[in-house]
Design brief:
This protein is mainly alpha-helical and 264 residues long. It contains 8 helices and 3 strands. The longest helix is centred in the last third of the chain and has 50 residues.
Length: 264
């Protein structure tokens, strides 16, 4: 009896396409002849399947893995080695096409820790407060005749300069308030960072992750890094809901990847 590898719905003989998702139906005999090649997002696996068919590897099937919540691409056993090589080429091409876009996004959305933001705001606040306060003191001394300033229109001069130095003080107060806000956010951020790192130490194993990736013997270092990186990101997003993705990516780059794969 044919069934859908994605929806798991069974159909009567003669039907070849799933009515719910449009996937090609398979039977048990076909599934026994298939082996895993790679896993990933549905759109990526669909594109890779089309690429395999273009390279005349027929019979590829996309199956949804409910346990890991990813889509898996399978091919016939005798096509596996060639499919792996084609998949590697596909990933390299896909990476080169998106490289410029990723670099632009990285330049425009560089992650900055709240702790660093707090320090920057605090430094700016003290600078503005000192300059504004010192400026007002000099103006008061000037208006009192202690420091005689030679100006054409004293009312205009003292009025404008007083407004400027008062603006500095106001900006300094605002920056100091922002620094306190970021300090509180940094505390929460550091707590979350420690929680994520602790969970990774206790639950993630490099060998187990590589097993989940399948056969990566033909992959270069960059592709292997990308696969491991995406797997780590996927597991953390699955375990912890609503994570800031910029924060998560920075944490994986700085700490978690080396923590998990540092000894390999």
């Amino acid at each position: 009896m044919p069934w859908c590898p994605k929806c798991k719905n069974e159909y009567r003989e003669g039907i070849t396409v799933c009515a719910d998702c449009g996937c090609e139906l398979v039977n048990e005999e076909q599934m026994e002849e298939l082996v895993s090649v790679i896993f990933g997002e549905e759109e990526q696996m669909t594109s890779l399947k089309a690429f395999l068919e273009y390279q005349q590897i027929e019979g590829a099937v996309i199956r949804y893995d409910e346990q890991d919540q990813v889509f898996e691409l399978l091919v016939r056993k005798n096509d596996r080695e060639r499919a792996l090589e084609i998949a590697r080429i596909f990933l390299e091409q896909e990476g080169s096409l998106s490289q410029n876009r990723e670099e632009k996004e990285e330049n425009s959305t560089v992650y900055e820790k709240s702790e660093q933001k707090a320090e920057d705001n605090r430094s700016s606040a003290w600078t503005l407060l000192v300059v504004g306060g010192a400026g007002l003191v000099f103006l008061i001394l000037g208006m009192g005749g202690v420091l005689p300033f030679s100006v054409g229109n004293p009312y205009l001069f003292y009025g404008v300069m007083s407004a400027v130095f008062l603006l500095f003080i106001v900006m300094g107060v605002v920056s100091m308030k922002n620094a306190r806000v970021f300090e509180k956010k940094a505390e929460s951020e550091n707590t979350l960072r420690e929680t994520l790192e602790k969970w990774c130490r206790e639950n993630l194993d490099a060998e187990e992750i590589d097993k989940e990736l399948g056969d990566v013997s033909g992959d270069g270092e960059e592709i292997l890094y990308f696969k491991r990186y995406e797997k780590l990101k996927e597991k953390l997003n699955h375990q912890f809901m609503n994570l800031d993705q910029a924060f998560l990516e920075n944490l994986i780059d700085e700490t978690i990847y080396d923590m998990v794969f540092g000894d390999i």
